Amino acid sequence: MLTQLINARILTPQGWLKEGSILIEDEKILEVTNCNLAVNGAEVVDLKGMYALPGGIDMHVHGGGGHDFMEGTEEAFRTAVKAHMRHGTTGIFPTLGASTFPMMNQAAETCTRLMAEKGSPILGLHLEGPYLNASMAGGQIPEYIKIPDPDEYIPFAEKWTCIRRWDAAPELPGAIPFGKYITGKDIVASVAHTVAEYEDIRTAYQSGYRHATHFYNAMPGFHKRHEYKYEGTVESIYLLDDMTVEVIADGIHVPPTILRLVYKIKGAERTCLVTDAMAAAASQCPTMFDPRVIIEDGVCKLADHSALAGSIATMDRLIRTMVQKADIPLADAARMASETPAGIMGVSHRKGSLAKGKDADIIVMDNNLNVQSVWAMGQPVCEDTTQT
User: Fold this and answer.
1) Cys-Cys crosslink for 2: which of 42, 153, 209, 297, Cβ 3.0 to 4.6 Å?
2) Using CA atoms, how far apart are residues 46 and 109, in angstroms rounded to an integer?
3) Which has the closest alpha carbon to 91: 48, 120, 63, 118?
4) Which class is 55-344 in CATH?
5) What H or E segment, with its residue span, contains residue 78?
6) DSSP 3-state of 339
7) Is 143 helix (H, G, I), strand (E, B) or coil?
8) How far is CA 247 from CA 5, 130, 215, 244, in A?
9) Positions in the chain whose pLDDT score sits under 70
10) CA dihedral sign, ordered 155, 98, 100, 280
11) What φ, ψ does residue 248 adopt, rounded to 5°?
12) What CATH fold (topology level) applies to the domain 2-52+358-380?
């Protein structure tokens, strides 16, 4: 089946096409061109000058649509994924917070099964824990936090090939051999929920850690102990040019001014946008998977107001925040939502840009950057009355 999207402002790897068209055959992009001539036999969709951007890839997302991936059920996975797809996420790495290994096993089994489906938007499993620093737990469940144990993580990683990313605090005992092991399995190692200073981060980098989880959140910046001053995790990661970062670009977890600072220092090539979304994202459901968490001021918080606990953001909100509040060019904001995470997570051969031969994953946005339609693997994503 041929579909042709015409009259679009298309973001390509080479830049903008102001009046272009995208020809889709089945699940793939057959051609991207600045010519709007109708192709014989194609179903034509007129985008009327709207933006056509690469589908978003969310490499850190806990849930949505009223469900959390930690539930481990097929219903939870399908509902959360569908909820985010309506808002422009066409590739997703379901995230588990610190949890027990039986819970992780159940979620990994479900993830593996759904990944095997033809055209699945699920690209792999992301484990945010349990190897985190308890003093930086934030919204993580404290009872599940522990130090890395090879008797646990080696059998688990050997059993589940769906694991694509695993986070840890590098200063913990055993975190360095853990990083070496998982990167040897082609699993992305990321620094998370940490109090690491420069030597810790440099050692971690040399051991395979190349990414920073929700940069600026659950990690210290420049600080003082007694009369002396020390660099924090934030400055240490800035000093390592090749370390990539992700930011929760909801405008709350990281202020717009700091979002702009991250972009200025790390650039679009080393910065990606993530939702870190919880169950209430893209949902009218007021309840959360974790009863300690409340929704207030457009964000998830611990009920005692001691910490932020995740977001209710969706991919379109991330792009709007970067452009409208942080004053980032749309092209770079879109790249940070698609091309950059695709590269970090090793899927850029098929996703992350609008180019011939890539998966036909497309966000159509109007001049105010509101989503008008989403195409995933060449198919329009169904609308739903629960869309918010």
Assistant:
1) 42
2) 41
3) 120
4) alpha beta
5) helix 74-85
6) helix
7) helix
8) 31, 21, 5, 10
9) 285-290, 297, 300, 309, 382-388
10) negative
11) -80, 95
12) Urease, subunit C; domain 1 (2.30.40)
